[in-house]
Amino acid sequence: MAFWNIFRRKPKQQNLELPEDLRKDLASKPPAYQFQQVETAGADNMRAKLDLVVTQMESMNIRLETMNQRMERLERMLQEIWAIARK
């Protein structure tokens, strides 16, 4: 054994096994979903989700454009008020 190995940390051994009562509880419950249903409906669900996301992005884009227009109007109003205040 080399000298530098004396100070090296030993890897911790993790207990990855579930407790007995939890294992029995999980074994008695039916699975939360069926793999066959997920595979057949997966593409349709993804298309629907993507369509929803695209629609939300378009809505947000319209809101952003509206806010930009309002900001431009406010900036013009402030410039006019500033010009009047200088006189």
Write the topology of this structure.
Blueprint: H1 20-28, H2 35-86
Q: How many strands, what sense, and barrel or not for the largest sheet?
A: none
Approximate shape: elongated
Helical residue percent band: over 70%
User: Tally the helices: what do you get?
Assistant: 2
Give the termini separation. 89 Å
Kindly provide the radius of gyration, computed on alpha-carbon positions and rounded to a whole number of angstroms.
Answer: 31 Å
Mean pLDDT: 78
Helix and strand pattern? HH
Which regions contain 5 or more consecutive residues with pLDDT less than 50?
none
What does this structure look like?
The radius of gyration is 31 Å and the shape is elongated. The chain is mostly helical and 87 residues long. Helix content is 70%, strand content 0%. It has a domain of 48 residues. It is built from two helices and no strands.
Please supply descriptive tags for the structure shown above.
single chain, 87 residues, mainly alpha
